[in-house]
Amino acid sequence: MKNRSLRKLFIFNTIKIVIMTLISIVISILLWVLWVNIYPRDYYERIHYENIKKEVEKNKDLIRRNEEIKIKQEDSKFIYAIYYKNKLIKNSKGYGIKSHKELEKIGTSNSFVDKNIKYKVEILDNEIKIIAIYPAFSTGNMYVDKFNSIAQNLLLITPVFWFTVFLVYYTSRLYREISSNFYEVTSYLKYIEKGIFDKNLREFKEEEFQELANRINLMKDKLKILLDKQVEKIEVQNNLFSSVAHDIKTPLTIISAETEMIMLSECQNINIQSRSNIILSEISRIDNLLTELLTISKLNLHNYSSTIEPINIQDVIFYQLKEFQSLIEKKNAQVKFLYSNENYYVNGDNMMLNRVLQNIISNALEHIDVSGELQIDLKSYDNKISLQIANTGSQFPDDYLRQEFIPFYSKKNERDKNHFGLGLYMSNIMLKKMNSELFIENKENKACVTIFFRGENNPENKR
Questions:
Q1: CB of 365 within 8 A of CB of 324?
Q2: 270 part of a folded domain
Q3: Which of 146, 221, 237, 449 has its CA 20 to 30 A from that of 80?
Q4: Rounded to two decimals, what is the model's pTM?
Q5: The pLDDT value given to residue 168
Q6: Contact residues for 189 (Cβ-Cβ < 8 A; gap 6+)
Q7: H or E segment and range at residue 15
């Protein structure tokens, strides 16, 4: 059914449930009627009583002469008594009845209310009376009777049973269909989250889902146009920035060279030497800043690629600590490297990973207090590796914690003035390229940087 609405589909299913329930009830009743015709429940009325009546009519003369008659039909459930002029001629016993008087008493008593037992009195030729008591509803087979009793009770709940069956069946089908549509929509949205825009969401039979699909496809097309324009704009800006940065580096190199020449020519002038050192220091700062900005611009390029491979993170940390040994000694810092496993492997780009840890450890050592503590904690759990680097001393500003690595210039009283706020921003970009996560916080009077890597089995164990 094309372009059907969920409302119409619900009404259609409701009608089907009602129709199928009615059909099932009719079929159940027809089967019950067929069963009753095959096994009629008037067995004692039709067989036993009629046989008794025939025997009496056949032996009327014997009865009138008060002679004994023989009845072939005997059944403990069928009780009868034959009278001639109110005199008992013959009787049977059953149902706990001991005499014909008790039988008569049952027949005339107002307390006889058992609907399953039939009491019958018939008079022939105004002289001969037949009194009989027997099961009112029976096939003569106790197993069939038991089945009939159960089937009759089940027949009473047939409408509820079939209604429940078809309600569960059709609502389950409707639920599966709606769930399947929702699953396709959510799966398609995940593709959009990943930046895959090469195909549209499929067409749906239901009007509501088709309207949703049309809006999602329209949103996807507009989002693709915006992203393409944004990527193009970023690439133009990055290329422009790279060109400007390279152009700035050329005069900086010249200024630096000329300043060094002045220092050589005026080596006896202490004032000129001091000012020249300041110029060279500031040139170095500008050069470092431009280098970081150029790196960030390259990382932001859409076509930037990296080589991902298993890397022993402990080796990288030990290497970086060795590189910063002089700075550690200068600050008289205590370094604690905590780990429980000898081999922690992560998936990443070796050059990027070294740059990230260099930025974070350098940043921590620059802002650690004298005789402070640098703690590195390496843990592994749930196929992830956690690396936390914490330092005592100045902590992260509250406004920066809320800004999620937006580049900033530090406040003088909070972080060192040489810190431009680009290190963590650049590290965050690099880690995202390696499918890892970076978090910062102030914890226990320490500035903490935590990285979550995706774990990798030790390649040596695979051999």
A1: yes
A2: no
A3: 146
A4: 0.46
A5: 93
A6: 216
A7: helix 6-38
